[in-house]
Amino acid sequence: MQIGLRQRQQHHIVEVHADGSGYRLHYDGREYRVEASTTPDGAQLLIIDGQRHLVDLVRSGRQCLVAVGGETYRFDPESAVAGGHEVGTVAVPEITAPMPGKVTQVLVKSGDQVIAGDGLLILEAMKMENRLVAEANGTVTDVRVAVGDMVDGGQVLVVVRYVE
Amino acid sequence: MFAKVLIANRGEIAVRIARACRELGIRSVAVYSEADAHAPHVLRADEAILLGPAQSQQSYLDIGKVIAAAKDSGAEAIHPGYGFLAENAGFARAVVDAGLIFIGPTPEVVAGMGDKTNARRLAAASGVPVVPAEEDPPHDIDGLTKSAGVIGYPLLIKAAAGGGGKGMRVVRSPAELAAAFESAGREAKNAFGDGRLFLERYIDRPRHVEVQVLADHHGNVVHLGERECSIQRRHQKIVEETPSPAVDEDLRRRMTDAACAVSRRVGYRGAGTVEFLLGPDCQFYFLEMNTRLQVEHPITELVSGIDLVQAQLRVAAGEPLWFRQNEIDARGHAIECRICAEDPAQQFLPSPGPILRLREPHGPGIRVDSGIAEGYEVPIHYDPMLAKISVWGETRDAARRRMLGALTEYVILGCTTAIPFLLDVLEHPAFIKGDTHTHFIDEHLRGWKAREDHQIVALVAAALDAARPQRGVVSSATAAAPAAQTTPWASLGSWRLGNG
Fold first, then answer.
1. Interchain contact A147–B (C-beta under 8 A)
2. How far does CA B118 lie from the centroid of its chain?
3. pLDDT digits over B156-193, tens only?
4. Within 13 Å, how many C-alpha atoms sit on residue B197's CB side?
5. A5 chain-B contacts, CB cut-off 8 A
6. Which of A5, A27, A58 sits opposite B356 (nearest CB)?
7. What residues contact B76, with CB distance under 8 A and at least 6 apart?
8. For residue A130, what pLDDT is reported?
9. Lowest mean pLDDT, pick from A122-136, B22-36, B67-81
10. Do B414 and A65 touch (CB under 8 A)?
11. Per-residue pLDDT reduced to its tens digit, A123-147
12. Residue of B nearest to A152 (CA)
């Protein structure tokens, strides 16, 4: 079967086939032979083309989090058909909170012209001030928070109409 | 010795202090906020007292509540740890006034050293070199610009009342001055309740080298060598080591003499740290004195064999130091890495979240001081440091290799940490050579991205996991679901984990 996985802006398609006690995987034009087992304490021992790897994997909502060799990876499952191409980076008009926190300063109001790098507001989380800035030149069309508001990670704070 | 001590802190340091208490036969009393009811530091202590809501101002920073908790529990002394009230002279004074013992120097010394401008004067008076600075800059923009011009750019704005990078800004040109001054003042006010700032000349590419001192009530002052803490981001240390690769016997003697001179002059007692900037020309300048235990104290413990927290407790109880300077011997090399909930690929933005899987490294010469547990939610209200690893090795390179192994074994899933970044720091040729300074990260690792050496392995694991349920073989490893009902995030309303 085909598995689609998104990792930030990268889309991966992996083909998985059962093969005796293990699996054959196809990814990016290569075949991998994999033996997989779960250890008593919940880790996974993967033997990929004869190489042993101890991996930890948990789900967080739909996301799949993987730790291996001091690195961590975050994958979102997605339809395998949609993948295969890079998503370009464009300025996103909705400025969202990168983490939960408290708005300590709002630096713009609706109608303000901003240029790339201008501060929009200051969000305090974990005792640090984080300045959210305009990604490109444009006009502020909506400010949805006020000083003192507690905001969630991902919440839309300011909307900017960017000019090309 | 005390029968009972209250620990006015949270996280790994509160756990560390509770362990020292247990080893000395002292009962420990934890305090906690509503966000920390089941935090490791609460579970490790013999008793625990709720202070109040999650916000620090209403819990860990509320002097009245902390002192009331100490009185109610019958504790004789309060250990402040680091951060929070540890360098708050008003707190130290209130502890003493309540008839309790503050585990640290006198309130006068905390006040004297906590005020950075006063600390500079004391250091200079002790014959220790200081960096050119303006101690009380005018607040109007013209006056401020003039003061800054006298010191010269680049310059550093620092909070008069604090440390740890809060309220600190580097200003490289007059155009940046006003905005930086205002923002630093606000941050200082939030972090320390005191928005006063001072300006000083910024020494380019310095090393941060500090000396650990220990003093008792009987006039004995000793030092336990230096630590180098040059690897910093946002002016916060993330890798520390001892000894410093830049300090030879002669320089060590001069720096430790200076640290002891300052400590003697102010009548210091307990554990303290005198911080210096060490220029590329091997000139050193007094930076500040931290009148408390440092985050990075374990590396000194590893090379000296002296338990600094036990020493603090014994000295505070009135015991004279039980060793002389010439009996202290540093052996081998130690390195510490701080493990924080932050994303190194995104300017170290805090990355709070649930700890869905935790495996700490073990092995010879590896020590983990941790304030988290599997299933625990990292609250947004406090410092993002989760834990720290310290390793000991016979040589610097042996310690470095041991740390690489330990970091590779460390598994934290659920919130992002800088472990892959720390691996790259330790493997950087400049670090291997000991060519470290406080701009190391900016100079060598700016725009850092994860190498993702194990991407194929991770992809294989994730693809098999996604394929398995359809094949009717549900792996037990996928069963860990976030425990939404236990989150301390209730005040944040609709916050949820993942996409449910």
1. no
2. 23
3. 998 888 766 788 899 999 999 999 999 998 988 888 88
4. 32
5. 459, 462-463, 466
6. A58
7. B2, B3, B4, B5, B100, B101
8. 78
9. A122-136
10. yes
11. 887 777 778 888 778 899 999 999 9
12. B495
The residue of chain A nearest to residue B165, with distances taken between CA atoms, is: A128
In sequence order, what are the residues at sequence separation of 6 or more whose Cβ sits closer than 8 angstroms to the Cβ of residue A161?
A: A93, A138, A139, A141
Residues 6 or more apart whose Cβ sits within 8 Å of residue B298: B334, B336, B367, B369, B388, B390
CA distance A97 to chain B (A): 11
For residue B334, give both structure tokens: 């130690």
The whole-number pLDDT of residue A155 equals 82
CA distance B162 to B268: 19
Residue B132 token pair: 């050119």
Q: Does A65 touch chain B (CB under 8 A)?
A: yes
Instruction: With a cut of 90, say whether residue B398 has pLDDT above it.
Output: yes
Nearest chain B alpha carbon to A59: B478
Number of domains in chain A: 2
Architecture of the domain delimited by B132-201: 2-Layer Sandwich (3.30)
A53 found inside a domain: yes
Q: Residue A24 corresponds to which tokens in the numbers above? A: 């054959």
Verify whether the Cβ–Cβ distance B350 to A129 is below 8 Å.
no
- Judge if ipTM > 0.85: no
Nearest CA distance, B266 vs chain A (angstrom): 31
Alpha carbon distance A84, A61 (integer Å): 24
Q: How far apart are CA B235 and CA B120, in angstroms?
A: 20
- Residues with Cβ within 8 Å of B219's Cβ and at least 6 positions away in sequence, in order, are none
Interface of B with A in 152-191 (CB under 8 A): 166, 183, 186-187, 190-191
Residue with tokens 């200082």: B188
CATH entry, B4-103, from 3.30.930.10, 2.60.40.10, 3.40.50.20, 3.90.1150.10: 3.40.50.20
The pLDDT, as a whole number, for residue B210 is 98
Q: Which of A18-32, A91-105, B117-131, B309-323 has the lowest mean pLDDT?
A: A91-105
Give the pLDDT confidence score for residue B470 in this predicted structure: 43
Q: Which of B464, B476, B489 sits opposite A16 (nearest CB)?
A: B464
Query: What pLDDT was estimated at residue A126?
Result: 75
Answer whether residue A83 is part of any domain: no
pLDDT category at B491 given cuts 50, 70, 90 is very low
Record the tokens describing residue B313, joined without a space: 């407790």
What is the pLDDT averaged over residues A102-123?
A: 89
CB atoms within 10 A of CB B98: 16
Nearest chain B CA: its distance from A91 CA (Å): 16
